[in-house]
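Appendix B. One record, verbatim.
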Amino acid sequence: MELRKAVAVALIGAASLAQASDDDKVGAEFELGVLMTSGNTEETNFNSRFAITQESRRWRNSAELSARHTEAEDETTAEQYRAEGETNYKFDERQYWFLRGSWEDDRFSGYAFESSITGGYGNRLWESGKRSFWSVSTGLGYRYNRLDEPDDEGNEKEDSVIARFATQLDYALSDRALFRQKLSTEVGLEENNTISESETALQANVVGNLSMKTAFRVKHVSDPPEGKERTDTETAITLLYTF
């Protein structure tokens, strides 16, 4: 069974958990802007993102959908869709168990789609106020990627047990500005392909619920499909609306 079905189930589960009570904290944000890329695609294009979070005394849930699309001279030169969801069960004030699923379809990556599902342990090592924290997590899971074209050995897919390591730092520079750094690595324990991602972002409130956000993202694949770059970078300047 394609792992994206399992990911969809995980996302639906996260959505059902987000049926908030009066005591829960629920937030959402919508992002729209211009994206400049290098690597497998070098274009200027539009991107969008929608995210929702819900937190209660025992549970913390999040889901995110994003897309980017570029056309040049009536031809599509970049097209990517991504969905991910995570649920945390907080068994004490700082520590939690997590279950996470992700699915990505990047038309120019050499993959028909990439997907993974992981679970494990996390810890908020530091927390200050309502917006600043540092968390780390580690766990095991399963990766299933479908190639656009069979490789030299005739394989049309990549699947492996994986180990996942991730960290996130949110730091409130002021009441109106937030710095965020996210790092993650998924190491294939069977086929030895390692996928690492980084996002460095700074957002500042403009007026009301509207903010300006700049972000720099890097994705590195240690063993990409034939003819594809190992590293993709993205620089984005977007408007962010929270509600």
